[in-house]
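Working notes for the structural subgroup meeting. M.R. asked for a predicted model of this chain before we commit to crystallization trials. I am recording the input and output together here so anyone reviewing the notebook later can reproduce the run.

Input as submitted:
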Amino acid sequence: MQTREIYGLIGAIFGMTGLFLLILWIGDFVPFVRFSLALLLLGSGTWAIGVAADVRWGEILARLRQALSQALAGLMPVPSAPLASPWGCPSCRYPVEAGWRFCLRCGQPLEWKACPRCGRTQLGIGEFCAFCGALLKEET
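Returned structure, recorded in token form:
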């Protein structure tokens, strides 16, 4: 007997035994062990028959993995682009937009100030204006 014939015979025996156990599992819903054994035998039988028939499992699995990853890529959410704001929360550095009263990530209250020289609004976290460099003082 040749190696391929032996693999084919083993595959047929494992496959048929696995199929029989699977039918029994479906019929009376016995414990999970029988189901696991059925799948193991079906898989082993399929593999052995494939080896006997000179199937290249690596190529088949690579194509399957590529098709699965392409199908899942359409389901994955597209990562959102970071906000195009020059300002970051003083607490967590999350980008914040001008006029926001609170940080969306940590809930920190945000204080906005207007520059006395250029009048542009900015976070009141520094001593100088980010746009013109003027000293930010609180008006009395």
